[in-house]
Amino acid sequence: MASVVATNQTILVVGGGVSGMTAALEAAECGKQVVLVENTATLGGRTSVLYRYFPKLCHPVCGLEINLRRLKGNRNVRVLTLAEVTGISGTRGDFTVTVKRSPRYVNENCTACGACAEAVSTQVPNPWNYGLDRMKAAYLPHAMAYPQRYVLDPSIIGTPDAEKAKAACKYGAIDLGMAEETLELKVGAIVWATGWQPYDAARIQPYGYGRFPNVITSVEFERLADPHGPTGGKILRPSDGKEAKDVAFIQCAGSRDENHLRHCSRICCMASLKQTQYVREAFGDGAQSTVYYIDIRAIDRLEDFYARVQKDTTVRFVKSKVARIAEDQATRDPILHGVDTEGYHRYANRHDLAVLAIGMAPSVKAADIPAEVVEDSSGFIEAAAERAAVFGAGCATNALDVNRSVQNATAAALRAIQVVNRAARAET
Amino acid sequence: MASDLNAQALARYRNDFLREVEERVDEGEWVKMCMQCGVCAGSCPFGPHWEHSPQKLFMMIRAGKRDEVLQSDSMWMCTSCYNCVVRCPRKLPITTIMHGIATYAHRLGLAPKRQPTRDFSVVFWENFTRNGRANEMRLMLRLWFKDGIGAGIKKALAMKNVGLGMLRTRRMSPFEIFGGHGVKDVKGFQAMIRKAQEIEDRRRGFTK
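The joint structure predicted for all components is written out below.
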């Protein structure tokens, strides 16, 4: 299990989201040896917890399924989950990478039958639902998880719950003796695809996230709409479980703001336009979505989708960045205060639920990456110099949607291939 | 004098009011950075009570609405709470710009007449530049009696308890009425103020 054969012609891909998977697969399909390192228990990243893609409103499951099939059919990719890069030394064409692997406590025998989850009673917050609900401490991350293998949460190790899980497993898949291990890999080039995280909404003080239960982020709303989410796909608001038929979407929550994220996060306009369609889908003509925006940034073909949503009678657009949110203490309805730019009308609008179209921050700031990369003013990785051997890919380099992340990751894979090809030539 | 300055400004900037503001108003070069999001307008605690929010004023400046902007009394209503400044996504120094526009309008003689904040500012400036210290007795009497003796007495009676409290705690002395205290070198202080005004006038293009 722990043996990973790697040479200076191997490409290391850090991050197993859609960008990392793409970079790994593109390189592997060119015949290169690839090690794909992912720090959670499954590949798929944030893409796998989207309900639908814009603009076609198709399900991400489909695209992920294709990538997983490519992965299963390819012998050149070695996937390490629950693994984290802790150090990189060496130079272009000759790196030594230290990888820390956390124990899963479940081995290859697992059939994902779920008997361990039934046996265990401890619950832990579910990160794949952004903590909106709790899950059993023996869990499969989500339906699309790869590998399809359960995980024991480290918090139950050494408790009777762990023993119960072990006893429940018919296949001898639970190995409580697993321990953290450290690997050293030789690699020639590195693709860094650690992706993004939602900006900490609580820092946008006037919006009251964290203080008002009915102010949530767009990634949380995505989970509410998803049948695999905490509400089984029903759009229910957190305070009282009431159907949220009147939903406000607040654009540029954290983005384009010198006090928070300097950059435009690019996806949020389209994400909110998409989410208005979730509300319509759930409540039909009884739905009411209001998008509060500075300007809608739906470019190229995406603008057609914007035009379609504009025609939707259940969607209203208010050109205004909301100044602050208050809460009706009796009903817990969020009340949005601001002034609109088209006529300068002052408003105090009550809604069932306010969704902050939250900005994208890099998961790992470029300055914290243990390799030579240049950080831009938002913490993303700047385009690599000509003689580089560490290449950013996907949302580690900029705020990108899935489509552009995939393109970007393919480009990074190509540059990594060039590096290991040169290393190979130097040896012969 | 004031109207001369206005005529001079009109001749110099013609229809480019944005450039006029950029050159002549404190922090005016920030006005073009406004992206019209409306957070300042929505954050202003006085927002509902004045006609032109900062957002609207900035748009009016860009639209060349010179008279409306300079004659507006909205910027005189700014209480310097800085709510807009801390929330502005572009970090515009909105409070400073508000006071800058007000000051400029005053210089040109276009600011609204009998605007209480303007009246107070004029009285306060005269009061403390006289000898370098605010003279509370004189400031108070000037403000109370500017609308006539009857109104002055009425206001004095209304503020009686505050005044007595200040006398008791020695925060105010009735003898200030005869000139009051000042800085050690009053002449030097006044020369400094004159010099500062001269530099500022040159910088803003009022003088060569």
